[in-house]
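The instructor's notes for this session suggest beginning with a concrete chain rather than abstract definitions. Hand out the sequence below and ask the class to guess, before any prediction is shown, which regions might be ordered.
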Amino acid sequence: MTRLLAIIRRLRISKEIDIVTISSRHGHFLAELTAGHKSLTIAPTSFPIFLSIRFLATFIRLRKSVSKFSRYVLATLETTKAQVIVATDAVKELTEIAGANDRVEVVAVMHGFYINQQGYNLREGWTSEQESSVTLFALGEYDRAHYRRWGNSHQQILTVGSANNCLYIKKNRARPSLGFDICIVQGSLNPFPKDEFSKARHQNWELIADFVNRLAIARNLSIAVALSSSSKEESIRDWFENRLTQATFFRSSIDPFATYRAIDSSRVSVGEASTALVEGLARRNRCIAINFSGLDILTLPVPNLVSLVNPQFKDFENKFLELSGMSDNAYWSAIKNDVGLLIETDEQHLTIEKIRRHISLHCR
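After discussion, reveal the predicted structure:
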């Protein structure tokens, strides 16, 4: 009975629309991209079931040729006659969907900075490359040479910057005043690591937390900790509280832009392989990407001025003092060209508008 009720709640009457959007916890910007068009947002874990012969026929016809996820999407596209599908690049089935329906423009927007995970047996593991007709909106020129998420080699990559970063700036025109000396930008941290990669990352965070705490004690610094949204959030907060003398926490589970606010409110921000650090650099914040692990995957390809690999504590302290002492103009002049290759630093913050224009070209 419970299963039947769940199916009934997913039933929909079909209607024609322009755009289908696949929702994502990473894609706070997705609703902004479809403004002014008839659109339908679907959750990847609970697709609508349309009361339509066309929907049922498409779903059955494709049962042996594509994944179940793709069948739902393709049946929805067929039923609604949508011309565009929009999602973040976290949806690995987009290339399959584009290949099965060349009538529809499939758009993927990068939800984070891309680092090749090949050889680390992580969630984006792939064994061979494939050409993809999905239009990819990327952070910067770096992605043209390096982007291979899910093994896809995209035929069209348009560099526009970060849509999440653009939306944050759009909603927060006034920059917050500096309230903290140093911010820890928490990335992927498992307080209870089991596999070798998680253990290496855990050790990375042990050393980052130790260095920050020692510096804060020695120089009487205030600390902010930006927590990413995670099912382990409470455990991660406890983990940091046990290692830091004092800290103020910013929680992305409560405010999707909490990490951005924490970085903008701090004199210097530190972390490891984090998209938020790259976006922070684009907003001209002083950041330090640190890697103690010896694993290339955890070294951000950022300018040397904002990077430390296997540092001693004195190296960390000197880097903090160097960045803190630079004028805004000197700092930005030193990093802007290299940062501009990683992420578009559009002064007009037009990332979302550029994607909208592309989508509109493919709508009725």
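Then share the key points. The chain is about 40% helix and 20% strand. The longest helix spans residues 196-219.
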